[in-house]
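Possible regression after last week's pipeline update?

I re-ran a chain I had predicted before the update to compare outputs. Posting the input and the new output here so someone can diff against the archived version. Not blocking, just want to make sure nothing changed silently.
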Amino acid sequence: MVRRIINTAGVVGLVTLIAVSILPGCYYDVEENLIVRDTTYVYDTTGGGGGCDTTAMSYSQDIAPVFAQYCNVCHSSAAQLGSVVLDNYADVIVEVENGRLLGAIKQESGYSPMPQGGGKLDDCTISKISAWINQGAPDN
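New output (post-update):
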């Protein structure tokens, strides 16, 4: 009887040890993929160098022109490559909220690097898009 209790306790302990060591590995957050809507939290307000003002980003003035220049050839309502549309705010906010926008333009592992076949966007442009998202991604 005592041996049976010891065996049962050993099995339960082993299963618990395995579960505790495996389960934490099933979850992680990548900081760049988190959508932070607090305007006090901005990744980079300088853009990595002088002359890159990211303090008050505007979708219509700062963000939409970037997408028009670098993205809309492939990601417009007409083209929709990869089922991604970036020529209007309603579709852009979908990509912001699912985290794929920043991952793609930062060309991070696990994301399709964008612009595809072209060079990475400059640090200031990426910082502006990131700051706009951190400022709540307003439709302004």
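Follow-up from reviewer: compared with the archived run. The chain has one domain: 30-134. Marking as no regression found.
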